[in-house]
Amino acid sequence: MFTEKPLKVFVALAVLSFVGLLILQQSLTFHRVAMFIQDPSKKPSRVRNRFKLQNAKSEEGSYLGSRELGNEYDHNQELNIDSSIGIPVSQTLKETVEHRSSVSFKEAHEVSKSLEKQKSRMSSPKTLSKLNSPEQQTTSPSLDRRSRLPKALIIGFSKCGTAALRTFLTIHPDVISPILELRYFTEYYSKGPEWYRRQMPPSTEEQLTIEKTPAYIMTNESLTRIQDFDPKIKLIVIVRDPIVRLQSQYAHVFCHTKPSLWPPFKHWWNEKPHDQRIIHFSYYAWYIRQVYNQFPREKVLILSEDDMERNPLPVLKEAEGFLGLRPAYTDDMFVFNKEKGFYCFNTRSRLFPRVLRLVKVNRFTGCLGGDKGREHPPIGKNYLEHLRQVIRPLNEELFSLIGKRFQWDNFKKKP
Ligand SMILES: Nc1ncnc2c1ncn2[C@@H]1O[C@H](COP(=O)(O)OS(=O)(=O)O)[C@@H](OP(=O)(O)O)[C@H]1O
What we know:
Layout: H1 4-38, H2 50-55, H3 63-71, H4 75-79, E1 81-82, E2 87-88, H5 89-98, H6 105-120, H7 125-131, H8 134-137, E3 146-147, E4 152-156, H9 162-169, E5 175-176, H10 192-198, E6 202-203, E7 208-212, H11 220-229, E8 234-239, H12 242-253, H13 265-270, H14 276-282, H15 284-294, E9 300-304, H16 305-310, H17 312-323, E10 334-337, E11 342-345, H18 352-358, H19 381-402
Parallel strand pairs: 4-7, 4-8, 5-7, 8-9
Antiparallel strand pairs: 1-2, 3-6, 10-11
Helix pairs in contact: 15-19
The chain binds 3'-phosphate-adenosine-5'-phosphate sulfate.
């Protein structure tokens, strides 16, 4: 009797703990499944509010992510440069914080921490190799499938839809592209062309490998390296309404920062005297002229993100012709996603399973990750007018340089 009672108590306790653990595990699994079904990247798109902006996450390894990837051991890290805006990070932070006299040391530290988090978010070059590895990207076995150097590059501009363009292009059966920005001509050049080749997913002789790194257009050094690498390479540049790009850049820089620490949009861009920062971001013509100085014009295609956002098909068709691909893009490949506010892959498309192996999109929605389509900050009427005045001549210079005009909402002539 004496020995039986403690035994019973012990058994009862053991059963209770087991059941408790089981319930805990089930609820965790349920939570994870619920999160998964919910799709954290979803957002009611162009209803851009502060809360959404703050919560936008860099899900894809593009710009933000892969930039940080390079920063793991790039020159920028040493120089402490935020390559998204081309100015020292410490300076950006300092300026950001200085703007708000009420910001405490603790808050400033938080800004710094959140930017550091952004920087270390992405993986090491090891992960880069893994993500772009042949195993990861093989679509079907073929004897002559091997990694080949790219014959086309998307070289700019950041925040202008470069990821969407690259992603959409890969639904073409003859297009192959590495998942991440490789930044070979800017940061990993010393690794040599064999390293670069090895990062490419395997392709057949007939397929075209395309790499995208928006930073390539920003320096003459990288353009010269591309020229040395292959003078016949095809280059794609995508631009965007410069005012929307400024909003997008602002949203990108502050996406992991408490809204209470954000400087007003106008102040942040005005921090540099004479609209220097605005011009740095909006003077597409200046950078494109450097490209034309080194490459024949027929090897350079200029597209607009705004056109692609409205309807990707004509833009892709233009790229298809330029790249010399057989016609394959059709409008049933893409569907407009109301929540995101732009087009995503049609998950019912026959070629969608192939896309899933080549790019990083949500398998249920067919859309790019949550760092695309962030909320944009509002711009006051007077400041908007100021931006228009500063930027309009830069746009005109661009249109006459490239010989075509883009319809950008912020610059539409009033009826
Ligand atoms: N179809 C589609 N799918 C996903 N994203 C789309 C698409 N069309 C345009 N865009 C807009 O592209 C903006 C991001 O540009 P990038 O990919 O060049 O950014 S990055 O430089 O690589 O970070 C990003 O801008 P923001 O919305 O301002 O963040 C996207 O809205």
